[in-house]
């Protein structure tokens, strides 16, 4: 249809619409259209392959691959920094420290400085043990869940025409992987001499489920109040609560009991003194906020492009089927987080600050803050959402998404730092 000019349908008595007199009465307009149907040779099960075809979305795939290449360059640079720079510095440190072979481990404190001097404090257990172990346990659970979801997607178990399939799988996997969080949390809690293992299990089981239930309650109440069809019925709510009470929480308890009974001793190359060493004043660039800014921005920059398409899929009308690229981005994210954690932990120890336990979690775990800030940017500049209902749902679930990323990357960051610290202190000659 060409050259159509708009005109008002509601006119005064006797007005003419398109040359037809209305005369104050009603007007019936017949609207017709024609459709040409072309049969597709692809069966229904393979219909989603068109969304992964380069000829179907050439520009989109090009942007995806450019993002992957950009992120890989970042990973190579970070790995080169960790392997070349840090190992070169550590080699010089080892050569300097191992010259002193006279006396015991305690005698090496005289006239020494750097990360070696805090060898009797670096394995001093932190405050808030139960909360730390709960973060590590739930982070390990979400790492398992995310890996399983991506593998299932690669195997073609999700159809883009079945809305909510990934959400349903995530709910089931969250309940089934609760044993992972209980095992990791209670096992490490026992290793670091935690005494209140029952409270540790309760904290682990509620660390994410409590914010999830609170956020969902507020969002669902707003939906009910506005009469939206997005509000879940009472039967679905009871079914989800039953899945957590009958499956999720019991598996957390079982995993915690198994982890407690199978936990060994904490492996520390050096013994810990009873009296903690005084920590010297640190320069501004070694403060927690600076490390959080560095450790959060770099992993976020590696996934920022792909994050846009995920947001457009979840909150828009796009389809995301490039699960192979998603797997690459997922691996890059974890690699960048681990490398950044090792580098920041070394710089922290070199300043004779042994409070690395929580610092390693917060440094890379702050990626969740950057993701939430990006969600605010997406809401204001990339989406057409507005109103109380859409705003509450978007920001509520964006907060939960940021929490999930913080828990996952915080767990990866901690285990990478712990392995690095054990390696460098085990490599020293301490008689």
UniProtKB/TrEMBL annotation:
Leader peptide range in chain numbering: none
Mode of membrane association: Multi-pass membrane protein
GO terms for cellular component: autophagosome membrane
Location(s) in or outside the cell: Cytoplasmic vesicle, Autophagosome membrane
Membrane-traversing stretches: 63-87, 131-158, 164-185, 197-219, 231-258, 289-311, 323-349, 356-379, 399-425
Function text: Plays an essential role in autophagy.
Protein name from the UniProt record: Transmembrane 9 superfamily member
Gene source species: Iconisemion striatum
Gene transcribed to yield this protein: TM9SF1
């Amino acid at each position: 249809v060409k050259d159509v000019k708009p005109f008002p349908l509601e006119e005064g008595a006797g007005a003419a619409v398109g040359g037809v007199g209305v005369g104050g009465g009603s007007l019936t307009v017949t609207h017709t259209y024609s459709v040409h149907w072309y049969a597709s040779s692809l069966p229904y099960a393979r219909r989603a392959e068109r969304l992964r075809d380069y000829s179907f979305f050439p520009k989109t795939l090009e942007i995806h691959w450019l993002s992957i290449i950009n992120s890989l360059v970042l990973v190579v640079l970070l790995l080169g920094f960790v392997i070349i720079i840090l190992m070169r510095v550590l080699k010089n440190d080892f050569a300097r420290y191992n010259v002193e072979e006279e006396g015991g481990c305690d005698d090496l404190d005289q006239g020494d400085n750097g990360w070696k001097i805090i060898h009797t404090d670096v394995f001093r257990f932190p405050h808030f043990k139960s909360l730390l172990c709960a973060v590590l346990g739930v982070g390990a659970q979400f790492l398992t869940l995310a890996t399983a979801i991506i593998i299932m997607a690669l195997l073609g178990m999700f159809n883009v025409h079945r809305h909510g399939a990934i959400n349903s799988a995530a709910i089931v996997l969250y309940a089934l992987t609760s044993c992972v969080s209980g095992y990791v949390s209670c096992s490490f809690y026992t290793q670091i001499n935690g005494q209140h293992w029952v409270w540790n299990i309760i904290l682990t089981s509620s660390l994410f489920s409590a914010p999830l239930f609170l956020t969902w309650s507020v969002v669902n109440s707003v939906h009910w109040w506005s009469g939206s069809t997005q509000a879940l019925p009472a039967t679905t709510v009871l079914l989800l609560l039953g899945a957590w009470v009958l499956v999720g929480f019991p598996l957390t308890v079982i995993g915690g009991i198994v982890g407690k009974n199978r936990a060994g001793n904490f492996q520390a190359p050096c013994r810990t003194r009873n009296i903690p060493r005084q920590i010297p004043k640190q320069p501004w660039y070694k403060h927690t906020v600076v490390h959080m800014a560095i450790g959060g921005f770099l992993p976020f920059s590696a996934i920022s492009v792909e994050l846009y398409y995920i947001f457009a899929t979840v909150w828009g009308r796009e389809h995301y089927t490039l699960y192979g690229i998603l797997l690459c981005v997922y691996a890059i994210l974890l690699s960048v987080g681990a490398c950044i954690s090792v580098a920041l932990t070394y710089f922290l120890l070199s300043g004779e600050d042994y409070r690395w336990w929580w610092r390693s979690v917060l440094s890379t775990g702050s990626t969740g803050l950057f993701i939430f800030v990006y969600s605010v940017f997406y809401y204001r500049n990339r989406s057409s959402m507005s109103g109380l209902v859409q705003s509450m749902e978007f920001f509520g679930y964006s907060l939960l998404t940021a929490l999930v990323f913080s828990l996952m990357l915080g767990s990866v960051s901690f285990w990478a730092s712990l392995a690095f610290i054990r390696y460098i202190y085990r490599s020293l000659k301490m008689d």
